[in-house]
Amino acid sequence: MSRYEDTERTFSALPPAHGRGFAGTWWGRAWLKALEDAAMDAAQVKAGRRLARAGAVGAVSVRPGRITAVVQDRDGTAHRADVLLEQLSDAQWDRFAEMAIERSGHVAALLDRDMPPHLVEDAATAGIELLPGMGDLEPECECGAWDHCGHTAALCYQVARLLDQDPFVLLLMRGRAEDAVLDALHTHGAAPAGDSVARPEGVDAAEAYAAGHVLPPLPAPPVLGDGPGVPPSLDTETAPPPGVDPSAVAFLAARAASEAHRLLAGALRDGHARQPVDGEPTPAQDAVRLAAGGPGAEVLDRLAQGSGRTRDALSVAVRAWRLGGRSALSVLEDEWAVESDTLARARAALDSAWDEDERPSLRARANRWTVVGAPRQLRLDREGRWWPYREEGGRWVPAGEPAQDPATALASMAPAAGDEL
Asked: N or C end: fewer C-beta atoms under 10 angstroms in the chain?
């Protein structure tokens, strides 16, 4: 008898599993597949699933080669159910330890309560089957069934939940408790608790690619919170280093959190994969994005200076950014030639919107059309939208949201005093 066979762990009864699956990890699903593929009576497996979901499985005892629990039928009758699993030999455990320490990622994964597919594959190559296969889960039950009954099936479903939380439960069934596994790794040259020698984490990229067919499915997309997170406070008693403004750093952290939240919201929308990918913003564009977050006066001055703008010019740029981001900022600051067919369609739309004696006269230059005798202007963006602009204090500033039709964009501007069309 192995010196490890007297090890036992007992897990309290788990609450009912209403509205959730029993196995979220790939190894938990592999455990249940061994049960479902081998059971002769599918109805008994379904009955066990219902019992486990209802919370009918009591405390679960796990020890080398055996799991045990008391399972109650729907009428309250209790039955002791056992499921046996063959233990690994001492020689197999030695090979497992040698295999694991060859790749630091295996040890790190186990300590993180993870069991990556390549760990199981490497073990199988060394002649060590960690996960059970068809027929490996041998049932024993007081109800007298010779195959898996509802009670042993319910026990297996409940153990799948335990395996999800801690793969060391499987290693205990195979014959070794967690401390014994870690002792063996240490004896064979590993230092699972951390050592002074830096070791690369993870696995070789070629190995990961080769194991792609056995990788678990991707997790569900993250749930988006109501707003960005709150960065840690920098208000400490320690004086900042020379040249570092804590308020500016705090502002940058807050804007980074806000931008991350915005990008995640966009990534979770339907059809995101079909949307074009924006290029990296220029420093001048990013300065406007940051200024749109409402920093203090000192930060605004630094952003204006760093982006080559005056404070007034930065203020107008922020106004455009808040209306339409980089696209609106490009309309504010850039000019480009417009194709002749686009010009013809725009003129036709404008001609049809007013009677001849009321039609405004516009002077076109590149993508900017200015109303003659009035402080109004239309600007075409590269997506084919027309932006309304108004002259204020000798400067053209955005005056509202864009429109696909130039006449609609022009009419959307409320007349100012002395402004006639």
From this structure: N
What's at 387, amino acid-wise?
A: W
User: Which candidate, 167, 163, 88, places its Cα nearest to that of 126?
Assistant: 88
DSSP states of 266-294 as a string? HHTSTTGGGSPPP-PPPHHHHHHHHHTT-
Contact 58, 77 (CB under 8 A): no
The greatest distance separating any two alpha carbons of the chain, rounded to the nearest whole angstrom, comes to: 106
Helix, strand, coil proportions of the chain in percent (round to 5)?
Answer: 45, 10, 45
Cα–Cα distance for residue pair 381/393, rounded to 1 Å: 24
Q: How many C-alpha atoms does 269 have within 13 Å on its Cβ side? A: 10
- Could you tell me which residues come within 8 angstroms of residue 256 by beta carbon, excluding any fewer than 6 positions away? 231
Nearest to 83 by CA among 2, 155, 13: 155
How far is 41 from 49, CA to CA, in rounded Å?
13
Report which of 111, 95, 115 is spatially closest to residue 193, judged by C-alpha positions: 111
pLDDT in tens, the chain (421 residues): 445 555 888 998 888 876 667 888 888 888 998 888 888 788 899 999 899 988 899 999 999 999 999 999 988 899 999 999 999 998 898 888 888 877 766 777 788 888 888 888 888 888 888 999 888 999 999 998 888 999 999 999 999 999 988 889 999 999 988 888 888 777 765 444 444 444 456 666 766 666 565 566 777 766 788 888 777 767 666 777 888 887 888 888 888 888 888 888 888 888 877 777 777 888 999 999 999 988 888 889 989 998 899 999 999 999 999 999 999 999 999 999 988 888 888 888 888 877 777 788 889 899 999 999 899 999 999 888 999 999 998 899 999 999 998 888 888 885 554 454 4
* AA letter at 411: A
